[in-house]
Amino acid sequence: MSAVLTAARSAVRAARPSARAIPAASLSLAARSVHTLPKLDYAYDALEPHISGQIMELHHSKHHQAYVNGLNAAEQSYAKAPSPKEQIKLQSALKFNGGGHINHSLFWKNLAPQAQGGGELAAGPLKDALVADFGSIDAFKKKMNSVTAAIQGSGWGWLGYNPDTKKLEIVTTPNQDPLLTHVPILGIDIWEHAFYLQYHNVKADYLTAIWNVINFKEAERRFVEAAKSA
Amino acid sequence: MAHVLPDLPYGYDALEPFISKQIMELHHKKHHQTYVNSLNAAEQAYAKASTPKERIALQSALKFNGGGHINHSLFWKNLAPASSEGKGNGGVLRDGALKEAIVKTWGSVDKFIAEFNATTAAIQGSGWGWLGYHPTLKILEITTTANQDPLLTHVPIIGVDIWEHAFYLQYLNVKADYLKAIWNVINWDEAEKRFAEA
User: Fold this and answer.
1) Is the CB of B21 inside 8 Å of chain A's CB atoms?
2) B190 phi and psi, to 5 degrees?
3) What is the value of pTM for the model shown?
4) Are residues A105 and A65 in the same domain?
5) Nearest by CB: B30 against A66, A92, A201
6) Mean of the pLDDT values across residues B97-124?
7) Given CB atoms, is A200 within the 8 Å cutoff of chain B?
8) Distance (Å) from the C-alpha of residue B123 to the closest C-alpha of chain A?
9) Which of A28-37, A94-103, A113-122 has the lowest mean pLDDT?
10) In this complex, do A201 and B165 lie within 8 Å of one another by their Cβ atoms?
11) What is the ipTM of this complex?
């Protein structure tokens, strides 16, 4: 790298606060593990017409933000909890908000605008595994949709990698329970807030549309990593 | 014996501005109708099931759709057009046995509503908030059920649907506003009737 470029980079870095610098005030124990709302890799309206900008904005800036805030509050309380009983009382808040944060963070990344490859499943190990485990890509999508639609209440549909059988499987989790039995490859939010403003009660239409913005590249990345570590 | 979708005791727009016509129409004609249809299908399948295993396999469909039908049928009846809008008796808790019991248990009606709303808003997922009468302890209690589970431990006095389809089109993520507004259209007369019977 040229000396000029290096100097230029140093100058830029010095001129703006590094993203890594931690203000002294937040070095307390309580602030050490503050979770934050991750930014989306695309604009709120980038998934239109499949998922509306209105939904994306509410879903990210209100719902996911509330899970982040709830998680931070629950963790603060947990740190102060003086007994196992008090800790156990906090478990449901940690699971609900922690799960909400985990699930939505995975979700935003496994969505992508068509301009960024959303909806495209390239030839490769993931495609091969899907065909091997489900017969065809269409059969996989159909099963994912019917299993997800059948959830009785709020929850998530998952394509997961089973580390024991080394197969891809479709599973669900209720409410904001995170997927623990499998490595998450793709998650689909079927809470009504994820689709109702646009699709009303017709969740089948949401489930058909969402495949246009599924980020198969990210899914493949997760799959390759899961298959490696198993 | 096929179950049918009960008619609403009021028009789809009757609960405005507290619950929108759009929500009422979708909620009744689409969501509740689906529970009715699916309950009938599940019961048909159950009648044909010839082993305990097959019957047990059908339990979740019966509970979900049966519960959905029970809960929504109770819900439509414990809502009424708002008195504050001059449309009906909704939102008016007259002096009587129910009001006395609420004040005795929670100190005031406002305190009851605040606790009911906090408990209902805290449901983690889909479900229902209930004012219920405990049949053996003989007291009123605030309780919740998950998803479409019907209230079994108490006699239902008032139910409030907190599934997102019940409010999202109008109140978006601000369920606290829905829970505040709905008390304008709660049919306290029906609640009193259920309480007297319980």
Assistant:
1) no
2) -65, -40
3) 0.90
4) yes
5) A201
6) 98
7) yes
8) 10
9) A28-37
10) yes
11) 0.93
Chain B interface mutation, best of A56, A190, A201, highest count of B Cβ atoms under 10 Å: A201
B106 close to A (CB below 8 A)? no
- Tokens representing residue A127 in the block: 């495609």
CATH code of the domain containing A140: 3.55.40.20
The band of A229, judged by pLDDT with boundaries at 50, 70 and 90, is confident
- pLDDT tens per residue, range B66-85: 999 999 999 999 999 999 99
pLDDT tens-place string over residues A70-93: 999 999 999 999 999 999 999 999
Instruction: Please check whether residues A127 and A70 belong to one and the same domain.
Output: no
Is the predicted pLDDT of residue A12 greater than 90, yes or no? no
Confirm if B104 and B140 have CB atoms less than 8 A apart.
no
**Three-state DSSP state, A74:** helix
The Cα-based distances of A105 to A7, A38, A82, A208, B129 in angstroms read 36, 7, 31, 22, 30
B29 touches chain A (CB under 8 A): no
All residues of chain A having their beta carbon less than 8 Å from the beta carbon of residue B125 are 153-155, 174-176
By DSSP bridging, strand B139-146 and strand B127-134 are antiparallel
Backbone Cα Rg of chain B: 17
Distance from CA of A209 to the nearest CA of B (A): 20
Q: Does A201 lie in the same domain as A165?
A: yes
Tokens of A137: 């890509």
The full set of domains in chain B, from first to last, is 21-80 (1.10.287.990), 85-197 (3.55.40.20)
Q: Is pLDDT of A2 > 60? A: no
Asked if residue A177 belongs to a known ligand binding site, the reply is: no
